[in-house]
Write a structure and sequence with these properties.
Largest sheet: 4 strands, antiparallel
Radius of gyration: 17 Å
Strand content: 15-25%
Number of domains: 1
Shape: globular
Order of helices and strands: HHHEEEEEHHEHHHH
Oligomer: single chain
Number of helices: 9
Strand order of the largest sheet: 1-2-5-6
Number of strands: 6
Helix content: 25-40%
């Protein structure tokens, strides 16, 4: 893994969310597919397509869960798959829902807050995302099998790490290759979801009005 870390010297040993913003975490090839997904006829910008699903508080860390739609660019009868991290990253499980799960784990979230959770603001979450280390995951086939998950794992930034290095796709993704097009879209549009993320935290802590 060390030889892969040497490629990304402009990043620290861990990844912050801010390192990945403005498409910095996507390779040129992924940016091409991200642009295709955002443009007609698909017009699937993540803030239109992805939905904030849940918040899970895990000690000092906070997990934010999202669900996004597949890009329906394949002919009728195409069989979608999703990656099973607990089954050796198998992609044989049918994906009849045509959706992918995206997870964002913010490490030491509450240690970065300058206020108590009941007074948390959207700006507080934005500030935390500028400085906190993160781990991410998407169960689309590309994220694991095109090498993004491996690269993220070298920085201890994968929720489901792997030591399986890419052998084919590393030749296709010659530059920064941290995020699939779904996670790249989510990272770029994260401000849209911050109010929902804030309410998710407060709800889990019993701080919302009934």
């Amino acid at each position: 893994m060390e030889r892969y870390k040497s490629i990304y010297k402009h990043f620290t040993e861990e990844l912050r969310f801010s390192d990945l913003k403005k498409s910095a975490g996507m390779s040129d090839l992924t940016k091409k597919f991200r642009k295709e997904r955002s443009s007609k006829p698909y017009s699937q910008r993540e803030e239109r397509t992805a939905k904030f699903i849940d918040t899970k508080i895990q000690g000092k860390d906070v997990m934010f869960e999202f669900l996004t739609e597949v890009t329906e660019k394949y002919p009728d009868g195409y069989k979608w798959g999703e990656v099973e991290p607990d089954s050796n990253f198998d992609i044989k499980k049918p994906n009849s829902s045509k959706t992918y799960e995206m997870n964002l784990l913010v490490l030491d979230f509450f240690e970065w807050l300058d206020t108590t959770p009941d007074k948390i603001t959207n700006k507080d979450i934005e500030d935390v995302l500028e400085v906190a280390n993160v781990k991410l995951w998407c169960n689309c086939p590309s994220f694991h099998w095109q090498g993004m998950n491996f690269i993220m794992s070298t920085f201890d930034a994968s929720i489901h790490p792997t030591e399986i290095a890419p052998k084919f796709w590393n030749k296709k993704h010659m530059d920064d290759n941290f995020l699939c097009k779904h996670l790249g879209g989510l990272v770029n549009q994260i401000k849209f979801y911050i109010p929902q993320m804030r309410m998710g935290i407060k709800a889990k802590m019993g701080l919302t009005k009934k």
